[in-house]
Amino acid sequence: QVQLVESGGGLVQAGGSLRLSCAASGRTFSSYDMGWFRQAPGKERDFVGTINWSGGSTYVGNSVKGRFTISRDNAKNTVYLQMNRLKPEDTAVYYCAARRSRVHLYPFEADYWGQGTQVTVSS
Questions:
Q1: SS3 helix, strand, coil % of the chain, rounded to 5?
Q2: What's the confidence (pLDDT) of residue 4?
Q3: Which residues contact 4 (CB under 8 A, 6 or more apart)?
Q4: What is the mean pLDDT of residues 2-16?
């Protein structure tokens, strides 16, 4: 069982930056691929990006490519989502997810989910 807790959300102006963190419980964090998803009001949950168990490989969606980066620190059981040049359309609840490591990063089918953290980008 893996428990995930996101933090770092908040209100930011367009063009600004935020870094989200996701802390995972358990001693097997390094055996999990990690992902970030988001859900805007009235919309389905969308894939943002993923990072493999070692941190050596990442994949992000086209809507955030070049603006968002994913990293992880296995010693701290934490994965990060650095969000730069934020846009109002990035406003959403951001979720962290985990799955047992697999060969292909995408599609990412999560085994565990966090509770989410709100990100609001004002214009």
A1: 5, 50, 45
A2: 97
A3: 22, 23, 24, 25, 96, 97, 98, 112, 113, 114, 115
A4: 97
Residue 85 backbone dihedrals phi, psi, to 5 degrees: 45, 55
Asked if 106 contacts 73 with a C-beta cutoff of 8 angstroms, the reply is no
Q: Is 89 helix (H, G, I), strand (E, B) or coil?
A: helix
The answer to whether 82 and 94 are in contact (CB under 8 A) is no
Task: Please state, in angstroms and as integers, the Cα–Cα distance from residue 27 to each residue in 17, 24, 52, 75, 84, following that order.
Answer: 31, 9, 17, 10, 31
- 109: number of CA atoms within 13 Å, CB side? 3
d(CA 9, CA 93): 9
Strand partners, 23: 5, 78
